[in-house]
Each structure stands twice: as C-alpha cells, then as structure tokens.
C-alpha cells in the first residue's frame, strides 16, 4: 500500500502539470457527463440509471481522447495500441460506472436521497478512482507487454 501511495503521490508531486491537465480535462468531461445525465433524467424523464449509463458511454469516449491526447500525451501509437488502450480504459471506466449505478440505486431507490446530488457524489468518487487507474495502468509509460513506449 505504501508503494502505491508513493507512486500516486510521487507522480502528482513530480508531474504537477499532468495532474493539473487531468483535473482540467476531467472537470470538462465530468460536467459533460453530468449535463447529459441531467438532460436525460430531468428534461427527458428517463430513469436515472438509464440516464447514467448513456451519459457514461458518451463520457468514456470523450474522456479517453482528452486523457490520451492532452493529459498523458500518448501519441504516435499504432491502431492496435490505441485499441488496447481504449479497451483497458473502457474496462476500468465500466467498473466505476457500475459503482456509480450501485451508489445511485442505494442512495436514491433504497434511501430515497436526491438523485442529482447522489450523481455528483458518485461522479466525484469515480473521478478519484479513474485517475488512479489511468495513472498507474492505462496511460503508464509502459505498454501492456511491459515495454517502454
């Protein structure tokens, strides 16, 4: 656990500009995700879990390319490498989408909480987990074969 914390916080300390870019682009894609969710849920009347899942799909595409190009700067890859990165990215985001949906179900359906406030809290939780996974696994300086990019 200490090594993980040292890696994450060391990365933030040693690469503050990347962390700032992640926060900036993360905020933009998070507002995009929230905006789509609110539009689908409040304006169009879709069920909040359906809205969250649709918003997630659109968010993943936007977040992948902003992270890839502007945060982690992984350019010049083959199509196969991009596809592998996208698969890992979507897979990790799928886990946080499921986490968000579980949080929404528990706090809205079971505990009768506010769906919009719960979405914001769930999204913030996901953002933290997504940064850790992106930093440590998906956009690391090594590819899936362990070779330097």
From TrEMBL:
Protein name: GtrA family protein
One matching Pfam family: GtrA_DPMS_TM
Residues passing through the membrane, by range: 20-40, 46-65, 86-108, 120-139
Chief place where the protein resides: membrane
Highest taxon of the lineage: Bacteria
Any one of the GO CC terms: plasma membrane
Keyword Coiled coil: no
BP GO terms, sorted: polysaccharide biosynthetic process
Naturally occurring in which organism (per UniProt): Neobittarella massiliensis (ex Bilen et al. 2018)
Membrane topology listed for this record: Multi-pass membrane protein
Residue ranges of every copy of the GtrA/DPMS transmembrane domain listed in the record: 21-139
Family to which this protein belongs: Belongs to the GtrA family.
